[in-house]
Amino acid sequence: MEYYTGAAKKETLEISELRKKARTGGAKAAVRVNGAVHTIRDMGNVAFVILRKREGLLQAVYEEGKAGFPLRDIREAAAVEIEGILEENEKAPGGIEIRIRSVHILSEPADAQMPLAISKWKLDTSLEAKLNYRSISLRNIRERAKFRIQEGLTRAFRDYLYGQGFTEIHTPKIGARGAEGGANIFKLEYFHRPAVLAQSPQFYKQMMVGVFDRVFETAPVFRAEKHNTKRHLNEYTSLDLEMGYIDGFEDIMAMESGYLQYAMELLAKEYAGEIKVLGIGLPRADRIPAVRFSEIKELVAEKYSHKMKNPFDLEPEEEVLIGQYAKEEWDSDFVFVTHYPSKKRPFYAMDDPEDTRYTLSFDLLYKGMEITTGGQRIHDYRALTDKIRARGMTEEGMEQYLNTFKHGMPPHGGLGIGLERLTMKLVGEDNVRETTLFPRDLSRLEP
Amino acid sequence: MEYYTGAAKKETLEISELRKKARTGGAKAAVRVNGAVHTIRDMGNVAFVILRKREGLLQAVYEEGKAGFPLRDIREAAAVEIEGILEENEKAPGGIEIRIRSVHILSEPADAQMPLAISKWKLDTSLEAKLNYRSISLRNIRERAKFRIQEGLTRAFRDYLYGQGFTEIHTPKIGARGAEGGANIFKLEYFHRPAVLAQSPQFYKQMMVGVFDRVFETAPVFRAEKHNTKRHLNEYTSLDLEMGYIDGFEDIMAMESGYLQYAMELLAKEYAGEIKVLGIGLPRADRIPAVRFSEIKELVAEKYSHKMKNPFDLEPEEEVLIGQYAKEEWDSDFVFVTHYPSKKRPFYAMDDPEDTRYTLSFDLLYKGMEITTGGQRIHDYRALTDKIRARGMTEEGMEQYLNTFKHGMPPHGGLGIGLERLTMKLVGEDNVRETTLFPRDLSRLEP
């Protein structure tokens, strides 16, 4: 028997530790580092062995005669542990390098011939190839950085909401019926009973507002939509929140703008390396304009001589124009579009008492693409059941949801953010698959 | 057009704000609070209106003549906003109360007759009833507190691992094949192709070790197991991690013990209220004993005169005895059981080179129940494909997974923690459904 008392400090150093050591007089010291051999540039008497580590690339220098082994012992794609001397070198990535003294091979590739040239700065291949070799293509530093940014966005969502008194929940993804209804539901057999995959945690998060007042969830949702576009996925990560005791649906937009501010601050602070690798700027989120659906449609129709087809619908091209308008007129990449038509929203959306053709709801557009849908929900039991009847829907299968309202619910509302879309716009990609680790679409079920 | 600039500070106060105000000379001040009317105790000239708020219960006092409205205006289960005078009162929950001056009804229940007596301190009803009325039963303060503890455990997992250089990933839950193989897989149709729900993120997290070195995921997994026990769920939340460049599988156990220490510290600090409500103590996690599978089986067989049926299997009763042994001999609620038999582990588990009948793997038992399975994985491509062949399995459908190893992978390992089980043992429940928001089991698909 032996005891475990916490994570052991490793003798090997990470890049940030090496830099700190070099800055604080530790240059010329003997150090140990491990990593994957990203690439080797053999210059004859000297060779640069570039290690890929979680914090970035690290240059190790092989000098004929000084290292106690032949260069051929090190192969690209091997995992190695190197002992050497830490040196400052302005030309090396991060300003430091390791002069190799000895190497310990941790693991050898069976095939060092990579299917993709991952060590190039920009991975020059098709999206299709990137996705087919996902575990290889993401070894490229720029490809990898996108998903570090994605982590920052998710992390900021949770941390900001913890600070705002929200409770995190985990709701089931297998259920007896879908929240939004409609045909876009994946069906499965659950021990000889019909079941579906959750399109959203909508019903559950509302039910939990009566328990925790404010809740959030960061989890997968499933949509059996037959869209084959650059912005649709059949499985994606939804950042959902729902909050009670709101004064109006404006509270939800205020909360989202607070989240985005917090997220940009966290990214600037903790993900500066990835931002630099990607060469991107962060959008301002300190003030996000909000404009009514019917109003902005007219504004863009006028400004860009766009012919409005349907006053109660918003086409993707119109979203793009709204994004352009917000940028030009209000210097904002983000814009809230409010008061969506009631027909376009689910039954639980609260109609605007001043004009019931519209709802107390919003979308958030980011660079001309919808990344969030949200709004106030009906909290009154009779109003809810009336609306269900008026829409010709059935209460069947919604008993527990409706029961929650029967026994009292505060005024509330919430939103859902598509994480992959938000990431895509932030890192400047134009296909949502670029910012999805393993996308699921009409034709893609692997890897 | 108007601008949103962040979450608006509410005029209504939360319990912690009221307490702080009272402590800092703000007693006798006029305040506004909102909440759900948890219960009303009418004593004649005075009535206690207990509000349920996210931080706990708050006592509001209705005094005949002082409040500008009749008591009957306030109904149980309504959502209200109250204006009143903040007072210190040692007998009130949290030492404060509000003397009501006026009330604003935010929402009325259609039916104030609750199906469950949620305002009792201990909800005295069957598990079945609790689950059938989940959105109501969780309004009970003790029931709710369990899920706040669950939040703390998840939050600690992420925060601890961020600090240890891990990257969070989101892997797909719909796939073409299962990670572990076997029959316990939910099947669905994916656009006219057969698909399955993920039993674990195993393959994906391993593939991502080659990219990020250290990764974690907190997400649902799906097991079509036909067990109907107190410890099995068909959908649960798995806290998964996988880490590269390990010196041995001991690194994984060290990491888990570090997490558990961090989690207990976070719970003690940030969830003290819930711990008090539940009346529980936190287990010590500063040193967790580890003992070999074959050794502990003999130890418990001897100490408790238990007849060992199969030296290569561990029955639930034996797990209970091991838990008892660890408590009695080592004063620990946790115990790592190491070197599980190879036959009991999946193909990717690394066999112990010193005795290949066993693996470099472990389970963590908590109070006699398995809450974690982990270990070192095979990282060598040929060793992996050899083992697949030796087991008579096919490589079909695993091409991308195996391809990752072909092109180099560091030594690595990881673990998966069942969140609901960990919560259950921590809060002292004996059925995992008690610590699952909306459990899915053989018979339960709703709510």
Count of helical regions of chain A: 12
Q: Largest sheet of chain A, if any?
A: 8 strands, mixed
What sort of overall outline of chain A do the alpha carbons produce when their principal axes are compared?
elongated
Helical coverage of chain A, percent range: 25-40%
Q: In total, how many beta strands of chain A?
A: 19
| CATH class placement of the largest domain in chain A | Alpha Beta
CATH-derived architecture of the largest domain in chain A = 2-Layer Sandwich
Overall pLDDT of chain A, averaged?
95
Strand order of the largest sheet of chain A: 7-11-12-19-18-17-14-13
Which quaternary structure do these chains form?
Answer: homodimer
Rg measurement of chain A, Å: 26 Å
Most extensive contact? A-B, 127 and 127 residues
Range of strand content of chain A = 25-35%
Domain count of chain A: 2
- In whole angstroms, the N-to-C terminal distance of chain A is 41 Å
Poorly predicted regions of chain A are none
Class by alpha and beta content of chain A: alpha+beta
Q: Quick one: CATH superfamily of the largest domain in chain A?
A: Bira Bifunctional Protein, Domain 2
> Which fold name is given in CATH as the topology of the largest domain in chain A?
BirA Bifunctional Protein, domain 2
